[in-house]
Amino acid sequence: MKLKKIIFKILLLSIIIILLFNNKNIDYKKNKKIVYTNINKIKKKKIYKNKNNLSLLLIFPFIILLFMIATGPIFYQNFWHKNYIKISILISISICIYYIIYLNSLFKILITLIEYIQFILLILVLYISSGGIFIEINKKINSKINLLILFFGSCISNLIGTTGASIILIRPYIKINKKNIKPYHIIFFIFIISNIGGGLTPIGDPPLFLGFLKGVPFFWTLKNNFLPWVFSLTILGLFFYIIDFKNHVNIKNKIKKDKKPYILIYGGRNFFWLITITISIFLENKIFHFIPDIKYNNHSISFIREIIIILIILFLYKNANKYAFKKNKFNFKPLEEICFVFIAIFISILPILEIINNLAQSNKFINIINYNTLYWSTGLLSGFLDNAPTYLNLLNAIMSTYDANIHNVENVKLYTKGIYSINNILELKAISIASVFFGALTYIGNGPNFIVKSIAEKYGIKMPSFFEYIIYFSIPFLMPVLIVIWLLFFYIN
């Protein structure tokens, strides 16, 4: 898959969406007076319609996709690798047709596609910029150094995001351990750097960034998530150190003779572009009101940021350090499966999230909702669905029980201070921690997980299957940590 083809497809999809928006805008303007004259009645009708028209059968496309992602690479590998693109497109189209024709909800599909384009562009620019950085290390590796790399990665995840930190560090991490690399090295990398590490700042992980856009103060997560973050990383780091030490990493690694230990970095200028990319993430009209955007149906759709990212992609690819690309064995193969599988994930989870949102606003949900149930419901949904919309849906549901509006910045700020209830801070803390930490539960829990897995497989590392990942790593190592965090920081409170 060449870069030009990727950019062309993204631009083509963007143009189609813009044209559809324009058509939709004409109808919207014609009915503008009708919409505003009786908006409360319309909202009630809309909710009633969603609850009745969204069939539970709509969850099956996602279940089928999840099942095939889990079993395909094991039981029917050739079929899966030859047909996963067709399967992903078929699932996506089937959901789109249902929404557009039966539910007359073209808008929701368009918003989902825009979110997908934004996701893929960010993944692509981080993949190219980090692929142009080659770090050569000639040092005798041991368990302490590995642990230091993981801890360093968890810290910078809060500065450049879990995706950026994962893509930058995974290659040198694999190479420094090349004499004794095992699947557990990659799994703990996913646990620590690709997920839990980014739990302190809105830059770290998408759910926290969305919370920041809604009005959660920037340093709120740092203040409230710090102790669970330190605790979880300490326990996971201890697990890793014991396993790594038993595998005798110290003995099997050798440095080049007659040379002192050194670290060489090729393509270091790309670090500047990584900082630029991180800053560009904040180019939202919601943050800087002078930045133009597209206003549609109470949604603010950014495009300046995306244009900047596309320009950076083209510049970086054309002016990349060729030696770094060569040493990193850079190609777009790891991104191919991500691009197609994730569009199916984005589209197929749409009805599931709507069903969950409807249930969350029901009286039964209101009667059982508290920070304990929020922790587990947010966490388990984030492990198998997209953690960003899960965060927003459950935050919206719990705030609505206090007659607060998630779309009102002042309401959100009052909620973060515990003005509506003494439990508000614990509720938001439960949603924030669970949406980030549980992302490590499966390969599809967070975007970087799949990328790290694909890069590791490119280097010849035999990664565990979807179910093996859960059974042999998530349940015995990650789940006990998540349970203890719940007991210490929520249940006892």
Outline the secondary-structure elements:
Blueprint: H1 3-30, H2 32-37, H3 39-53, H4 60-75, H5 77-102, H6 106-131, E1 134-138, H7 143-176, H8 183-192, H9 206-214, H10 220-246, H11 249-252, E2 262-266, H12 270-280, E3 294-296, E4 299-301, H13 304-318, H14 322-327, H15 333-360, H16 363-368, H17 371-384, H18 387-400, H19 409-416, H20 424-437, H21 447-458, H22 466-491
Antiparallel strand pairs: 1-2, 3-4
Helix pairs in contact: 1-6, 4-5, 5-6, 5-15, 6-7, 6-12, 6-13, 6-15, 7-8, 7-10, 7-12, 7-21, 8-10, 9-18, 10-20, 10-22, 12-13, 15-18, 17-18, 17-20, 18-20
Order of helices and strands: HHHHHHEHHHHHEHEEHHHHHHHHHH
How confident overall, as mean pLDDT?
83
Number of strands: 4
The whole-angstrom Rg is: 23 Å
Strand order of the largest sheet: 1-2
Structure, explained:
This protein is mostly helical and 493 residues long. The protein has one domain. Helices cover 72% and strands 3% of the residues. It is built from 22 helices and 4 strands. It has helices at 3-30, 32-37, 39-53, 60-75, 77-102, 106-131, 143-176, 183-192, 206-214, 220-246, 249-252, 270-280, 304-318, 322-327, 333-360, 363-368, 371-384, 387-400, 409-416, 424-437, 447-458, 466-491, and strands at residues 134-138, 262-266, 294-296, 299-301. Strands 1-2 form a two-stranded antiparallel sheet. The protein has a two-stranded antiparallel sheet with strand order 3-4. Helix 9 packs parallel to helix 18 and helix 12 runs antiparallel to helix 13 (304-318). The longest helix is centred in the N-terminal third of the chain and has 34 residues, at 143-176. The relative contact order is 0.13.
